[in-house]
Design brief:
Elements lengths: L2 E3 L17 E2 L20 E6 L5 E4 H5 L4 E8 L4 E12 H8 L7 E6 L4 E5 H4 L5 E6 L2 E2 L9 E3 L12 E7 L26
Parallel strand pairs: 1-5, 2-6, 3-12
Antiparallel strand pairs: 3-4, 5-6, 6-9, 7-8, 7-12, 9-10, 9-11
The protein binds the ligand Nc1nc2c(c(=O)[nH]1)N[C@H]1C(S)=C(S)[C@@H](COP(=O)(O)O)O[C@H]1N2 and molybdenum atom.
Protein name: DMSO/TMAO reductase YedYZ, molybdopterin-dependent catalytic subunit
Organism: Haladaptatus litoreus
InterPro entries: OxRdtase_Mopterin-bd_dom, OxRdtase_Mopterin-bd_sf
Length: about 200
């Protein structure tokens, strides 16, 4: 199986592989605002809504049939740890965006999740090949506590920009803030500028 290595993306941000103020860990700590939500593969539904030509819904089987790829990514948590060389398999944001057809007035995106978490990004920060909706981690099913069945990865941002248990993406015509962005974490979250708090 081919793996696309995107662990060099720090070069685009004029930074070292390990962003400032981070320490590398081989562990994979769990950070959730609450407990791990239940999900039912029979009733799980993923929706693409808002400023798109076609709003879409996918069952779990339908989502898994979308074209997928495996990427080697680094993971940067705002609390100070980074984990290198994580292999995630899933569907790219741009694949979904193309299927739905993003309208010209869309400028922003809100992700929603089964635990009522939300997080936001400008559209341009989502339309990047490494923004991934992933269901596998290092060759196995993504563990439930790490966001299984499906989570978002944003290796160019601190990891709170990647919603675990994601079940919806909404295209917006103006910016809006998500769960942590309303509670003091940085709206922009660039690890190489240490944009941790707002
Ligand atoms: N749905 C959801 N996604 C979430 C969170 C959460 O509480 N709920 N926590 C965020 C935070 S603050 C971080 S650092 C990462 C942690 O991912 P991990 O638990 O796999 O390390 O998930 C992010 N995505
Ligand atoms: Mo976090």
């Amino acid at each position: 199986m081919s793996i696309t290595d995107v662990t060099h993306l720090h070069e685009e941000f004029d930074g070292e592989r390990l962003p400032p103020g981070q320490r590398e860990t081989s562990k994979f700590p769990v950070l959730s605002k609450g407990s791990t939500p239940d999900w039912n593969p029979e009733t799980w539904e993923f929706s693409v809504t808002g400023a798109v030509e076609d709003e879409l819904t996918f069952s779990w089987d339908e989502f898994r049939d979308l074209p997928s790829e495996t990427q080697r990514q680094d993971f940067h948590c705002v609390t100070g740890w980074s984990k290198f060389d994580c292999d995630f398999t899933g569907v790219t944001f741009t694949t979904l965006a193309e299927l739905a057809g993003v309208k010209d007035d869309a400028v922003h995106v809100m992700f929603s999740a089964l635990d009522d978490y939300t997080t936001n990004l400008p559209l341009a920060d989502c339309m990047r090949d490494e923004v991934l909706f992933a269901w596998d981690f290092d060759g196995d099913t993504l563990p439930r506590e790490h966001g299984g069945p499906l989570r978002v990865l944003t290796p160019h941002k601190y990891a709170y920009k990647g919603a675990k248990w994601v079940d919806g993406v909404e295209f917006l015509t103006e910016p809006k803030r998500g769960y942590w962005e309303r509670r003091g974490y940085s709206n922009t979250a660039n690890p190489w500028n240490e944009e941790r708090y707002s």
